[in-house]
């Protein structure tokens, strides 16, 4: 049985000051912890940058996907972004209420809802892309081009299909 005392850092009284930075213990070696901290930093900067537009990261991603894939279905976007259908529908409803996208039934399959970027949506996306480019540069310039390419490739390995890894 592990005792509380056994979990505490050696020299417990050294190096810690009230109000000062916390020791991270084992967290410093946990990938998920660092991904979360990086995500928080990026999210906070994005939210501040896009504040005047009122566009969330997910909304921006949907606008980008609709712009790149005219008449794409809500389901296809939900799958691409790993979102459930209810969340996707609520997100599309908000974008449609702002007249940034429109929804129409597919001419091929009436059950399928196709998304189209409106004129207001295209204008919003143009503004958002400029802001997003500046936001992105605040983080990407911390890496050399090769480091950034390797870093993104490593991240993609984390969220890509890992079904072959399962036994």
Description:
This protein is mainly alpha-helical and 167 residues long. The protein has a single domain (30-148), classed as Winged helix-like DNA-binding domain superfamily/Winged helix DNA-binding domain (Arc Repressor Mutant, subunit A), CATH 1.10.10.10. Helix content is 55%, strand content 7%. A hairpin with a 7-residue loop joins strand 2 and strand 3 (113-117). The longest helix has 22 residues, at 119-140. The protein is elongated, with a radius of gyration of 22 Å. 12% of the residues are buried. The model has no long low-confidence stretch (mean pLDDT 88).
Short description:
This protein has 167 residues and is mainly alpha-helical. It is 55% helix and 7% strand.
> Low-confidence parts lasting 5 or more residues at pLDDT below 50?
none
| CATH architecture verdict | Orthogonal Bundle
CATH class: Mainly Alpha
Proportion of residues in extended strands:
5-15%
The secondary-structure class comes to mainly alpha
Largest sheet report:
3 strands, antiparallel
- CA-based shape: elongated
User: What's the arrangement of strands in the largest beta sheet?
Assistant: 1-3-2
The name of the CATH topology is Arc Repressor Mutant, subunit A
Q: What is the topology?
A:
Blueprint: H1 4-7, H2 31-49, H3 57-68, E1 72-73, H4 74-80, H5 85-97, E2 101-105, E3 113-117, H6 119-140, H7 145-159
Antiparallel strand pairs: 1-3, 2-3
Helix pairs in contact: 2-6, 3-6, 4-5
């Amino acid at each position: 049985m592990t005792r509380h005392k056994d979990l505490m850092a050696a020299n417990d009284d050294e190096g810690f000051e009230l109000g000062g930075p916390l020791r991270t213990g084992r967290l410093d070696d946990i990938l998920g912890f660092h991904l979360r901290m990086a995500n928080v930093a990026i999210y906070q900067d994005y939210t501040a940058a896009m504040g005047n537009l009122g566009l969330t990261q997910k909304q921006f991603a949907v606008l980008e996907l609709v712009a790149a894939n005219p008449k794409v279905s809500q389901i296809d976007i939900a799958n691409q972004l790993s979102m459930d259908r209810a969340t996707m529908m609520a997100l599309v409803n908000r974008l449609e209420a702002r007249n940034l996208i429109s929804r129409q039934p597919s001419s091929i399959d009436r059950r399928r809802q196709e998304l189209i970027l409106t004129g207001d949506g295209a204008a919003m996306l143009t503004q958002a892309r400029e802001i997003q480019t500046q936001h992105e540069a605040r983080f990407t310039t911390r890496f050399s081009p090769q480091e950034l390419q390797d870093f993104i490739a490593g991240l993609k390995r984390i969220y890509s299909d890992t079904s072959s890894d399962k036994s």
